[in-house]
Specification:
single chain; three-stranded antiparallel beta sheet; Tetrahydropterin Synthase, Chain A; 26% strand; 243 residues; 3 domains; alpha+beta
């Protein structure tokens, strides 16, 4: 019976996604798995490590951005144990340590950015957090595989201020477009004035055309001075001879 009991304690089986760190009399003996292996009962102690990707739900963190705006940010962190011996020997509780480090790193990265950058460039923010976490967890044998900002909440007062800012920006753009239109119209009028100055008869013809348009719009009859008509005819003939 004693032999059967000892043998049952000596036989260990771990899954494909698991590894076992073995300590023999307190010293690191090696890493076993996956599958079946034997240990020495009482003398050997084992710590089982899961190699699958682990998800950390980082709770909402109140963070002050670089432009002094308070936001509430939460995220999801994905990591994986790459070196089981380091995860056991270099840190007391690698799961808790990674979770706490994720919170502080999230606050540090967001605190160095302005609100507009956090809202408009989340992909870059995610990459910065991941890189910093990966550097910090590398001595623990942990690889951070991904970071995703899940939500960025802003106070209602700040939301109203952002809405006013956006409205002012749209108003500025509309005024710029209107000014550009007026500038182009003025340029065209300047060119037209130069043409009329070179050909005065064109100005008179334009005047008669305007009279005709007014008459059509208001159902009026516009009677022009016969002298003006004669003058236009004379100028037209002179211009034709000049051509």
């Amino acid at each position: 019976m004693v032999a059967v009991f000892i043998l049952s304690k000596a036989i260990k089986i771990v899954n494909e996604y698991e590894r076992v760190v073995i300590f023999r009399l307190g010293r690191l003996s090696g890493i076993k798995g996956p599958g079946l292996f034997l240990i020495i009962p009482v003398i050997d102690t084992v710590v089982k490590i899961d190699l699958r990707v682990v998800t950390i739900d980082v709770p909402k963190q109140a963070v002050i951005t670089k432009d002094n705006v308070t936001v509430a940010v939460d995220a999801v962190i994905y990591y994986q144990v790459i070196e089981p011996s380091k995860a056991v020997n270099e840190v007391e509780n690698f799961k808790y340590a990674t979770a706490m480090l994720s919170q502080t790193t999230l606050r540090d990265v967001i605190g160095q950015l302005e609100l507009d950058d956090v809202l408009s460039d989340r992909e870059n923010v995610n990459r910065n957090i991941q890189e910093q976490l990966d550097i910090s967890t590398d001595p623990w044998g942990i690889k951070v595989t991904g970071v995703t900002l899940r939500d960025v909440s802003i106070d209602e007062t700040m939301l109203r201020a952002i809405a006013k800012q956006a409205e002012a920006e749209r108003e500025k753009r509309s005024r710029i477009i209107l000014s550009e239109g007026e500038y182009l119209a003025a340029e065209k009028m300047k060119q037209a004035a130069q043409l009329y100055q070179e050909m005065p008869v064109s100005l008179k013809l334009r005047e008669l055309q305007t009279y005709a348009e007014i008459a059509r719009e208001r159902n009026l009859i516009v009677v022009s001075n016969s002298t003006d008509i004669a003058e236009i005819a004379a100028m037209s003939k002179a211009f034709s001879r000049k051509e």
